[in-house]
Structures are given as structure tokens and as C-alpha cells.
Amino acid sequence: MKKLIMSLALALAMVVTAQAGDLVTIKGNTEGRSYHKSLYEEGCNYCHPGSPKKQVTDAACVDCHGQINDIEITKHLKMPEANPHKSVHYNQGASCLACHAEHTRKAPVCSECHRTWFDKM
22-112 has which CATH code? Predict the structure, then answer.
């Protein structure tokens, strides 16, 4: 019974981790988020319009995820005031790219001052 419970706990932990947006190999040395895997099948142009060398803008994020104030935070916040999507500093929120990165882990812009609130994502 203990082995069954441990196996289920381990499987659940792996499923939860996979949904957290782990970096996975896309092609060659390029990594990307596991939850965007279906986008990679269409190539880089989905987020990098026109050319993979072009910078991504917030428009690419908004097309799929919606406006920043409509996006719910699914992680536990250390305090309600720590919600980066409803920041007192940025009113309508900072750029998506100030906190999120597709191909690398990144510390959110809030962590520059609020060092204990956020981890690299």
C-alpha cells in the first residue's frame, strides 16, 4: 500500500511539474516552455511574426492569453499585494516580457526590489 501511495504521489508531482511550464528541448539547442509545445509545431512565426529573429511583443501573449488584468494567477502568492497582474506600480501591469520568458528562466521584474516574493519562472 505504501508503494502504491508513493507511486501515485510521484506521478502527481511529475504531472504538476510538467504543467508548470518546464523548459523542454524544441530543436537543437533551443528550449521552450512545455505548455507551448503545440505552437512549436507551427514554427517560430506564431510568436515571432515574419521571422524567428524578430523580437516578441506583448501582442503575441495577449492573442492567446488575453489582457493582463484578465489573467488569473494560479500560483500561491505570499500576499495578495504580490499579484504582478494587478500591480500598484504598473497600474494595468508591466509588459508580459518583464516577468515571462519563453526560452530561458527569468526572475520577474518585481523581484528586483521584492526579493523574497518571487522565484525564477
Answer: 1.10.1130
